[in-house]
Amino acid sequence: MRIGAVIEDQLNRLLEVETDDRFTVESVYYRGDTLCVSTQLGCPVKCSFCASGSNGLIRNLSYEEIVSQYELAVSEGMSIKNIAFAGIGEPLLNWENVKKAFWHFKEKGIRCSFYTTGFPVKHLKELLKLPHNGVNISFHAVSDEKRRKVIPYGEPLHRIIDTLRKHLEKLSNRKKKMYSIAYLLIKDFNDSEEELEKLSDIAKELNIGVSLLKYNEIEGLPYISTTDDEYERAFLFLKKRGVRVTLSNRYRTRKIGGCGTLMVNRLKS
To answer: Model pTM?
Structure first.
């Protein structure tokens, strides 16, 4: 693998890394200490709001290709204390390679966090038991029916919640703070007061926080971002109901910082 390009804005640095079979995989460096790495070329989960998986899965990245994203970033002078398995692909669907990369990073003293749809749940159960530094699980809906629309090849929501419930009941409140629900707020789809109330009920039952994400609109996809005022109202609604809720950070909302807005899987000619 080699670096094809490094693209920068005021907050993030995007690495385009060329694989030996002439595809491009991308990593994002943000916050001055964190590298978001990809785990697959394309994605089989095919979230309907995400451009990155619109063409499905090309192949899994090898262990060496996952680690190489870190090594190439370091060679560019990036100081990395945290790895986020949050780039292109579902890490649980490339679990053996991801797990091997996780232990490699941990041996280097690097903190590792995961962003996942929770599919397949058998690997989610194993992930939850690892000495990770955070797991953020994508819900994006509060019913199985709506979840299937945005995550058509994911795990049913009730199975995810049941898995989390069984794991979290054994943990202290301090350790529960390492877990959160990712909820991408999409205008006129999952932003009603009724749905936000249900989301707050789930979060309070599990005693974990909510990462309320603002949607980055993508040309050709049928979803619309909420306005800043609508997004803030949803945040305040959840907070008023006693939910530990965070907003999208300023790194994610950049054009080169949000999942699904990157220029992945381009075959080199």
So the answer is: 0.90
